[in-house]
Amino acid sequence: MGGATSRFRRWVLAALAGVVILILVLVAIVLAVFRFGALPLEDGTILGGGRVEAVVETMGPIAIGSYLIVLENGGYALMDAGMDSEARAIRSVLRRRGAEARDVKFIFVTHAHGDHMGGLPSLPDAEVYAIEADAKAIRRANSRTVQGLADGNVVKASGTKFEVFAIPGHTPGSAAYLVYGVLFLGDSAAAAYDGSVQANWLFSEDSKSNEESLAALARRLEGRADDVQQIAFGHQGPVAGLGPFLKWASERELK
Ligand SMILES: [Zn+2]
Question: Ligand 1 centroid vs 204 CA: distance in angstroms?
């Protein structure tokens, strides 16, 4: 009886130790990818010739980026909406610019993960856009109208042109957008500390199709280096120019 109980206790302790080790390994991986291995994304970073500003929320060591975009004919768009359901970081950047939540007219979502669409409830006046496969998930989570996009669409938002590229893999409806010379890749790719671009496998639903989508996008943009001044990401970066992305694509082809 006593022997069985202590064996059971030893088993429970070993299982607990296993769980703790597993959690530590996961934390180390997340830290490695999002913090120490990554190019840090700073709040207030200005992109797109002064018309795009990074808004950063922090969750422990992780930076969660969205981007405020000044529209040609007035008002703002957002690239993603952060994680905070009260959108405090976004609203404070707007306040600094003498604007408020209702001045955000459009929100383009790179993909339907909680840290990219969390602020939607606090931005009820904006028209929301996402690739149809992820638009469904956003409608479900928010019970609001979401305009479904498709690859190759060009959306004119208050005079500013948003080019839409479907890059399924991280999520089925992952999107890249090109606006004001900034290529937004969401979480499909990541910027490493050395300024290189990597396909992002972390939390990606289908890493293989993510890589294929990114490689196809690199081929499509190859001749348009002048149109891409910067690449912006969900949690790191940005990097300058299309070069690092094309380099990733050509190295992948050699493998
Ligand atoms: Zn994601």
Answer: 7
* Ligand 1 center to 184 CA (angstroms): 13
| pLDDT tens over the chain, length 255 residues | 557 788 899 999 999 999 999 999 888 777 666 556 789 999 999 999 999 999 999 988 889 999 999 999 999 999 999 999 999 999 999 999 999 999 999 999 999 999 999 999 999 999 999 999 999 999 999 989 999 999 999 999 999 999 999 999 999 999 999 999 999 999 999 999 899 999 998 889 999 999 999 999 999 999 999 999 999 999 999 999 999 999 999 999 887
If you measure from the C-alpha of residue 139 to the centroid of ligand 1, how many angstroms do you get, rounded to a whole number? Answer: 17
Report residue 57 CA to chain centroid gap. 12
Can you spell out the DSSP letters for 115-140? HHHTTGGG-TTSEEEEEHHHHHHHHH
CA angle 35/56/38 to nearest 5° reads 20
Q: What is the pTM of this model?
A: 0.87
- Residues whose beta carbons lie less than 5 angstroms from ion ligand 1: 113, 187
Domains, the chain, in order of start with CATH, read: 37-254 (3.60.15.10)
Tell me the CA–centroid distance for residue 59 and ligand 1, in Å.
14
| Contact present, 93 and 55 (Cβ < 8 Å) | yes
Ligand 1 geometric centre to CA of 187 (Å):
5
